[in-house]
């Protein structure tokens, strides 16, 4: 087999199991009480957080959604063998999501969604998450420019850290606290580039209301967010979340943990666990290379 040949079919079929066993010695204990990041941040569970003590495995879905199909050079759907040095930032981001799912035995899907008539393309995540919740207990959606910074860290551990309970419908990280990122009530918007959703009838209702928001039937004034920035994010933050205002139902993840990056101006949004490169779409390439190296060097 030449260096540029694709792997044999049997090997390709077993890659998820291979990745799981390769990383197994480095996995953080799902019931560990603390975690020290490479930046030196010490995280410890509060005593009263909900405990996710058993692996969710295929009950948890890592989800990528896009209307675009990347078939060009370095694209994830390009028919040539993928080159780690030539991949695009979007490919690196989605590959990191798939790798994370394989490591922990979670399910993974990439959905090419149809374009949404009369709406900005980012709206497609809302109905796709709603559909995915019909087959999975937990759905974790990420934009392609967002990346898991610690592949060895189980998602159950993060859900306990952020106190995702049985009553939680959705959880998202706050945006940086600036006037541009506040809703009409002056509250900081939650960023839809990283969403945790938990199946329930009430969650289905929330996502239905969210998807229907720009029709202006239930939420007057929401129509503008079909096309105007911040699209589905503004619709959720200005309208939908106020119908589900229990702290447990709509959980706010600290911006430091689940949004931003160390290089942005707001140092309270460091992207410690989920790094979101809003303005540097190629950065996931370097991150993916580095986090794989770090996992083996520091363990």
Automatic annotation (TrEMBL):
Any GO MF annotation of the entry: glycosyltransferase activity
One GO process term, biological-process aspect: protein N-linked glycosylation
Family: Belongs to the glycosyltransferase 77 family.
Taxonomic source organism: Fusarium oxysporum f. sp. raphani 54005
Pfam families, sorted: Nucleotid_trans (PF03407)
Start and end residues of each Nucleotide-diphospho-sugar transferase domain: 122-252
Keyword Nucleus in annotation: no
Keywords, in A-Z order: Glycosyltransferase, Transferase
Entry's Gene Ontology cellular component terms: Golgi membrane
Protein's name in the database: Nucleotide-diphospho-sugar transferase domain-containing protein
